[in-house]
Amino acid sequence: MRPQHFPHHPRHLHPGAWWLWAVGLAAAAGRTQNPVPLLLALAVTGFVVGARRSTAPWARSYTAFLRLALLLIAVRVLFQVLLSASAEGPTVLFTLPSLALPATSGLKLGGAVTLEALLQATYEGLQLAVILCCVGAANALGSARRLLRYVPAALYEIGVACVIALTFAPQLVTDAARVRQAHRLRGHRGRGLRGLRRLAMPVVEGALERSVELAAAMDSRGYGRTTGDPLTRRRTGLLVLAGLLGLCVGVYGLLDVTTSAWLGAPMLLLGALVAVTGVVAGRRGHTGRSRYRPDPWALPEWAVTLSGVAAAAGAALDAHLHPALLVLASPTAVPPVPLLACAGILLAALPAVLAPPPPDSATPAARDAASPLGVAA
Amino acid sequence: MIELDGVTLTYDGASAPVLRDVDLHVPEGELALVVGRTGSGKTSLLRLVNGLVPHFSGGRLRGRVRVDGRDTAVHRPRDLADVVGLVGQDPLAGFVTDNVEDELAYGMESLGLPGDVMRKRVEETLDLLGLAELRGRPLTDLSGGQQQRVAIGAVLTTHPRVLVLDEPTSALDPLAAEEVLAVLQRLVHDLGLTVLLAEHRLERVAQYADRVILVPGDGSVVSGTPAEVLATSPIAPPVVELGRVAGWHPLPLTVRDARRRAPALRERLTTADLPDRRTTSGGVVAQTTDLTVTYGRVNALRGVSTRLARGEVVALMGRNGAGKSTLLRALVGMRRPTSGRVEVIGTAPADLRAGDLLRHVGLVPQVPGDLLYTSSVGDECAEADRDAQVPAGTTRALFDRLSPGVPDERHPRDLSEGQRLTLALAVVLAARPPLVLLDEPTRGLDYTAKHRLVEILRDLVAEGHGVLLATHDVELVAEVATRVLVIADGEVVADGPTVDVVVSSPAFAPQVAKVLAPAPWLTPTEVAVALAGSEVPR
Amino acid sequence: MTPLVPLRLRSSLALGAAFVVGIVAFGWPFVVQPGAALDTSHSGDSPLVFVVVLPLLAAVVLSELTSGSLDAKAVAMLGMLAAVGAALRALGPGTAGLEPSFAVILLGGRVFGRGFGFVLGAVTLFAGALLTGGVGPWLPFQMVAAGWVGFFAGCLPRGRGRLEVLVLAGYAFVVGLAYGLVMNLWFWPFASYGPEVSYVAGGSLVTNLHHYLVFYVTTSLPWDLGRAVLSAVVVLVAGLPLLRALRRAARRAAFDATAVFE
């Protein structure tokens, strides 16, 4: 078997696999507000990120998302407990001084803080927080930057523009710092709005000039060598128009009562897919571009994707067979353990072993020196 | 390989053609050096080969340009990507991806080459240009020379037959420039590429050229062997000028050639008077005592003690990273000393308020455009008058003296490099600071602008300013500096009159000094004056 | 100046479809009739179809606008302006709701045309998310909303000088508020902060509007006011020089340059 099929061969996993895994886990989390599977899912994301994270700077985004998720729960709890007049249960923890708000808004400020309200808000916030952490895990493991290499040919220009934006944004920041230093030499403190304008203009004008230079370089290196075949364009144009028509019909069907169920969401989805097919088919085969060293889609990618699918499937099965296990009867009751959903979520922890570790970025010489026998790995 | 037949090029909205009836043939496998002032049409000539002119820039082209048999009227620049590779001055401005390997592969991806061919060519190019250890690195982490080599590699992977380079070494220090030029030399010899290279610093490249193409600026083009063209060209490296002064035929192009013919000249010069290099220097204008500047755990300057006086031009030389910029920043107050003292007219510059700083010391940064932020020359001068609190019109008058003939409405970014430098200098000089600092002023300047700068600096010291120049340009130092300070690894390694420091050291010696060593001659003008003096009949 | 991204029939149709679907995707709580498929009193999942459809539609629209019709100069200009916007997003407190990059998007749309404005908005938001490492399900919605910001900036009436800057500043203020108003709509029906501010499935238009406004004022108005004011101030202060710089760059880039051979 070729080395990319082995889980222990270090390489970058195809970022799409990580995103599919995260979507599966998020779908599982979205089905329930039971804290047991939710906390399990949170633990699984943390575990997999810790095991398979690379040292690149974007790998730190998981902690940022985690912090955001905790903030979300806190805001949710605060809002529910302080402002909402409903979901109050019998168990009062303490009472805050209350302020009278106009009756039309239907809110209250302060008043009794109950355990039921607290727990309810926490569980609801937890669901959203776990979904957020799944997205954070996907960002950290399958960097969206690497995903830019797999942009379909139909969106090629957008992909190039994104790469240019990502490449030059840090340079603009360095330029701004340099210009600010230079302005101090002219006796400006750089404060206030005038200072900002004086800083912004050289940086923006430099960026605009550089864009022309960049365009000349791209042109010289063969950008845009391809032309489209007019017949194909017309055919795929029809496909796209049909898809758009389907979209409009689907939208109408979703809103109107008298139409059948088939004219709603399914029509919408179908229309979208037809339009996308039209667009993709129109460009493929006519770009004349090839791809340098694409990441392969091998067994580890399948394993990671399927583990995510397993999590989603487990939760869906449980929702179908034992719906009572996924919902809490009352906030203060001891939460039940939905076995199928938890089993699926635990399966989603497998990528920590099944996915290949990210490659070491050290030079071969340093790696040889580090190895005890000095033998190449 | 490259053929221009009766080419006349006029840009949209221009009154006169840039190139008029140009006939040029560059055979295969030659390294052709394109020489000319800024704005003379050099860049247009280079971009004609690529097809960027007129497809990208617009314009009217009469005549025919053919590269490897392909006519650029029919082939757009993207169609010529597998025949011509273009490399510009600023490598970062042409990078489309963010790491070395992807950048090398980009051109091939656009051509649609299969994956294994791309793999093979990337490996070959990495080896050819010595970039193998840099393979996965982000492009912004590389040094200037490495970036330029990656830019060359990125156009090489499509296996072009012609390489066109527009001032590739102007933003590089001498060591990096050497690397890049050595690589080009190897490409011509081993791969048989035809290379068309535009350069200002002829002393670096003249020895490699098989052909010199002079663009005088009147629309014509003169092409021939280096010895022919440089004999009468107004733009020539110092070695060639020395040959003209000494009357050598054929003219030497390298220091080695010149040294072989030097003994006779040395004989004549032993009886000549040495140039009068004494300068009147006035009071001390800046002083550093045991100056130490540390960034975190890096010692940028260690115990630097020196003195700058009015009326002298001090050149600050040293490798990149040796501490030159740190010393300049300390003198301007951008860096506080970790220990030791810096004083400009008695006060520490870091303690001065921004408004007072202008009256003590002025710094023209490496990119003079950083100082300019308005949209017209007139506004810029008015702002400078306001900042320096001097009567309106002072800066404009200064600028007119330095670079006459620039209208008020011109946008500062539309000025030439030399004009932008003088505008920044005028802005700095508005408050009449006694100490003027310049960081790499000759980067990107052609010979005419450099001569102008030399005159300006001489005028400045005559008026009583003190000037400190941080530079790599040894020819500039030979022309204008009275004293040289060499910094290495944060310490002052040499500090003395130019002649003493420069003649004995191979890294800092100008071409004339290398030819006539150990005799203390620095510029062809000095030699010419000495010879004229010694030939006056008694 | 001819627009950088011309709006042909197909791209206009795609934009129109995106507009219609977008309005429904955001505004369905107000217009759905009880008993229709979207009515969440029966099954809570159907609005999620928009989470899947809108990104696909955004991809179709962007592809129709740009595929095969952007040359190197237009792509480089798009990338650079998106770099400016993305750098501002990454530096500025984007998470607090402030969007300094809106000024760049609407000025770019003004100078280079409606189609360019739409694409610039989408690419700026996408690049900003990639820079800050935060790509999530909200991104396609944000991209489309920012795209509309750029699009309508290109539709504003002609004018020059101070008047143009004032009009653009007013537009920036309105857009800052509208962005928040609309972006909150997409998760409001699923949020349950309390029955007084939540969506009432099957309730009347007036009830739901009332609930939404209360929700908006209590959760999002301060951020949105801040964003609106910041955008308007940036446009007022730096609008004139930025417009001049963009137009000068457009002239120098010679997007309409023609090569004549004799």
Rg of chain C from C-alpha positions? 20 Å
Fraction of residues in H or I helices of chain C? 55-70%
- Report on the biggest sheet of chain C: none
Secondary structure class of chain C reads mainly alpha
What is the overall number of helices of chain B? 20
Q: And the CATH topology of chain C?
A: Arp2/3 complex 21 kDa subunit ARPC3
Q: Sketch the major β-sheet of chain B.
A: 6 strands, mixed
**Which class do the helix and strand fractions of chain B yield?**
alpha/beta
Greatest interface and its participating residue counts: A-C, 95 and 85 residues
- In CATH terms, the superfamily of the largest domain in chain B is P-loop containing nucleotide triphosphate hydrolases
CATH architecture grouping of the largest domain in chain B: 3-Layer(aba) Sandwich
Could you tell me the mean pLDDT of chain C? Answer: 81
Q: How much of the sequence of chain B is in beta strands?
A: 15-25%
- How large, in whole angstroms, is the Cα Rg of chain B? 25 Å
Number of strands of chain B: 19
Q: How far apart, in Å, are the first and last alpha carbons of chain B? A: 58 Å
CATH class of the largest domain in chain B: Alpha Beta
Q: How widely separated are the two ends of chain C?
A: 26 Å
Name of the CATH architecture of chain C: Orthogonal Bundle
CATH topology of the largest domain in chain B: Rossmann fold
Task: List the SSEs and their pairings.
The complex is a heterotrimer of chains A (377), B (538) and C (262).
Chain A (H helix, E strand, L loop, with lengths): L14 H16 L4 H18 L8 H23 L8 E8 L9 E6 H27 L2 H4 L8 H30 L6 H29 L9 H26 L9 H19 L15 H23 L1 H4 L12 H9 L3 H4 L9 H7 L7
Antiparallel strand pairs in A: 1-2
Chain B lengths: L1 E9 L8 E8 L4 E6 L5 H9 L1 H4 L3 E9 L2 E2 L12 E4 L12 H12 L3 H14 L15 H13 L5 E5 L7 H18 L2 E5 L3 H4 L5 E5 L6 E3 L1 H7 L5 H9 L8 H16 L13 E12 L2 E12 L3 E5 L6 H9 L6 E6 L9 H7 E4 L12 H12 L5 H9 L14 H13 L5 E5 L7 H16 L3 E5 L3 H7 L2 E6 L2 E7 H7 L6 H6 L7 H11 L4
Parallel strand pairs in B: 3-8, 3-9, 6-7, 7-8, 13-17, 13-18, 15-16, 16-17
Antiparallel strand pairs in B: 1-2, 1-4, 4-5, 9-10, 11-12, 11-14, 18-19
Helix pairs in contact in B: 3-4, 3-5, 5-6, 9-20, 13-14, 13-15, 14-15
Chain C lengths: L8 H23 L16 H19 L5 H20 L9 H12 L1 H19 L6 H17 L5 H25 L19 H15 L1 H33 L5 E3 L1
Helix pairs in contact in C: 1-2, 3-4, 3-5, 4-5, 4-6, 4-9, 5-6, 6-7, 7-9
